[in-house]
Write a structure and sequence with these properties.
Pfam families: DUF1826. InterPro entries: DUF1826. This is Succinylglutamate desuccinylase. By secondary structure, the protein is an alpha+beta fold. It has a single domain, classed as Jelly Rolls. It contains four helices and ten strands. A seven-stranded mixed β-sheet has the order 1-2-8-5-10-4-3. A three-stranded antiparallel β-sheet has the order 7-6-9, with no helix packed on it. The chain binds fe (ii) ion.
């Protein structure tokens, strides 16, 4: 950063941050943080519920505006009716409540999807203010830290080349991956002041016969 930039209070490069507490998600309000992760282990009841829901064999995708008050009923109506699923409903309701509290929202756009292929296989930024992502089963979201990428190669900047050849990923870069159960907040391009600084991420590959259970929350 030049002396001139520093004197005008230019932002530092975006960084990721991690917390072992739910309350740590508030770290997303730091100007230079574009990815905030609550690292956690799913409890065994939730893990079992996820397994049973995925094993019900009904590929499903819920896409609904919910509030902290109605999310449990909405999920109870739409999820496969298997024993023990309440632990998963409770966990999702907790995340809806936390997301709405954090951003002072009455409602959130919830998507809960059983996924058997990479939905967004290329690295990209989201055109949203801030999205919550949790993978309950299967491989979780991958991302690049700022030192590992050349933003000029995002989107059309790739000149028709794959991410492996376009120069988007720097030679010595490590592709980072969020862990199953972790709760990630990803700032997008529409967070005020975050244009050109959105968290760069992609869906992981999914092997044949493998499923992911993916939750996203957006500002409704
Ligand atoms: Fe995305």
């Amino acid at each position: 950063m030049s002396v001139l930039e520093e004197s005008f209070g230019a932002l530092r490069s975006p960084v990721s941050d991690f917390s072992e507490e739910l309350s740590g998600l508030a770290g997303i309000y730091q100007d230079d943080v574009n990815l905030m992760v609550w690292q956690r282990q799913l409890d065994s009841d939730t893990e079992k519920a996820v397994f049973k829901v995925l094993s019900a064999g009904k590929s499903f995708s819920l896409n609904q505006i919910v509030s902290p008050e109605n999310v449990s009923d909405a999920l109870a109506r739409r999820l496969p009716n298997v024993d023990g699923r309440d632990a998963l409903i409770r966990d999702i309701a907790l995340l809806v409540d936390a997301y709405c509290c954090l951003f002072d929202l009455n409602t959130a756009g919830l998507r809960l999807t059983q996924v058997d292929r990479a939905m967004c296989p290329r690295f990209h930024v989201d055109q949203v203010p801030c999205r919550l992502i949790t993978t309950y089963a299967g491989p979780a979201t991958q991302w690049l830290d700022e030192q590992s990428l050349n933003r000029q190669k995002l989107g059309r900047g790739n000149n028709g080349q794959s991410d492996s050849y376009s120069g988007l990923i720097r030679a010595d870069a490590d592709v980072q991956q969020i862990s199953v159960g972790d709760v990630a907040l990803l700032k997008g391009e529409r967070w005020e002041g975050n244009e050109g600084r959105g968290a760069v991420h992609r869906s992981p590959g999914v092997d044949d016969g493998q499923y992911r259970l993916l939750l996203t929350l957006d500002m409704a």
